[in-house]
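Regression test case RT-17, inverse folding.

Input:
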């Protein structure tokens, strides 16, 4: 399992709280677009963790019609990658989520669900590099796609991770 100190210098620079806050917000934005409901915190964190991993991001389906189970069967390395990196990346994503909450980019309701504050996030995904754009697009897609499989506990079990 990777820890934050085992990430490369570039990875540590990429995984800074403002960027992980943006990635988390994209997941919440994607969930809101698809379901018109606030996003569970676990979906936002899991989406960001998955989006930050190039090995996972490269294999993501192009549409929401792909089932998670079938996708995992076709991409068995995803489960291995998630089990190796999810804990360390969740530790990177949580400060970003906290920053997003403190800066009022997202709001949390009494049920523990997140909404993006109006006017705090553009609908257009842009970024300085192709990788930054790809990470945001992946988080947006995952925020829309992961809940379509069923309960979040089912999704996490299929991915081999725990809350």
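Golden output:
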């Amino acid at each position: 399992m990777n820890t934050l100190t085992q990430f490369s210098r570039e990875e540590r620079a990429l995984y800074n709280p403002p960027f992980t806050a943006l990635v988390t917000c994209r997941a919440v934005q994607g969930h809101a677009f698809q379901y018109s409901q606030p996003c569970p915190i676990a979906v936002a964190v899991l989406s960001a963790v998955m989006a930050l991993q190039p090995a996972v991001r490269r294999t993501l389906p192009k549409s929401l019609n792909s089932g998670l189970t079938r996708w995992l069967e076709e991409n068995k390395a995803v489960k291995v990658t998630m089990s190796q990196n999810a804990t360390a990346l969740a530790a990177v994503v949580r400060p970003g989520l906290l920053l997003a909450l403190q800066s009022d980019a997202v709001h949390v309701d009494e049920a523990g669900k997140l909404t993006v504050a109006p006017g705090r996030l553009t609908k257009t995904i842009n970024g300085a590099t192709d990788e930054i754009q790809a990470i945001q697009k992946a988080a947006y897609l995952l925020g829309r796609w992961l809940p379509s499989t069923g309960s979040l506990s089912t999704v996490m079990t299929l991915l081999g991770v725990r809350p």
